[in-house]
């Protein structure tokens, strides 16, 4: 029998859950506080330029990938060719090119470290082997931590004999693996890995969960994609599907209150409108959830969820730039990391993505739009004086580093604006501009993750703070888990 489902927040997690349930035949209403879909994978326009808000590199579109499975289930495939060259990685002493082909990639890396070839090859052989085993869990996609007998059964059913090989590494970090292969003191190599991990796992090799790091370092080889226009296309596809399957999608609706009657959930938005539902999925920032509930209900939330709602994550400074490509020697590559060697945050490491020439969804002919983002600690922005200093300091640091790599870059800029934490808070509703989810350390990953089950019957959560973690793949997976729990079927 169809259920009335309310989804709060049209980020990738909420859209995934809503689209799956609407396709399943449930009556879905999706409320989004902003005027755009996609959350941190959304977009905005300035004059003739379109900018991705945050996420830019497409993942999970390969056959069997999370997004590919969702779009296939919805009957809306998104056929794209994977990038053979995924990104450039610019470091003080070495420059690397991340290649899709694993063998070519490793050959490229070892060529820069004479004397360490056997160590590095053994390291990557282990990483790729581990990732291939972990990836066998991607098809059944069990939920962690298991919260019901059915979830425990699903997890047990997903386990294969090969998974026994993962047990010795379950409570290890990638740093342990580097030590084992004699690479812990190879600073430039480790710094390169840290640059990849901070962008995907929100932490570096010393603390990141080994099992998740193996997948993170390998997943680019499975398929990384440039999506014309940007990743907001994911949001548009799912939004279209929701409406085609009878769902209701309302923008500019901020849910202020969630209450539970004997028979249903009642949500009230900022305009005083009420919505009744059998079940609710919250894709709003988890920091906001306790405030939506009465104290009695908030006290029923699971302890990890409550603790997460009180915790800080990274914030960011993002530069949104449009350039006149004719003023550059060469068009900008689509994806590039730049590190100055002074750490993984505060403008010393940043990710730079640019629209491809000819992507007229992003910029007119002869122009490219560029998104540049760096991690930053929230306490550097907690007063007005510190905020202004951090914004200017980090902006200058990143622009100088880009100019060193691309002479004439500053002269090519025709538009520039800065997305500091308060801008992120206004656009996405995330308190203090917290982005990216929790660092995937041993204390917060896998069985220590936050479950999609809130602890209150009929109330679910999804998004980058919920298992399996950040990025569009992680957010989508959490939405799948919420949808499965409501539908009581696998769906995909």
UniProtKB/TrEMBL annotation:
Naturally occurring in which organism (per UniProt): Metaplanococcus flavidus
Coiled-coil region(s): none
SUPFAM superfamilies the UniProt entry points to: FAD/NAD(P)-binding domain (SSF51905)
Cited InterPro entries: Amino_oxidase, CrtISO-like, FAD/NAD-bd_sf
Signal peptide: none
Domain of life, source organism: Bacteria
Membrane-spanning parts: none
Name the UniProt record assigns to this protein: Phytoene desaturase family protein
Domain Amine oxidase: 12-486
Pfam families linked to this entry: Amino_oxidase
Matching Gene3D superfamilies: FAD/NAD(P)-binding domain (3.50.50.60)
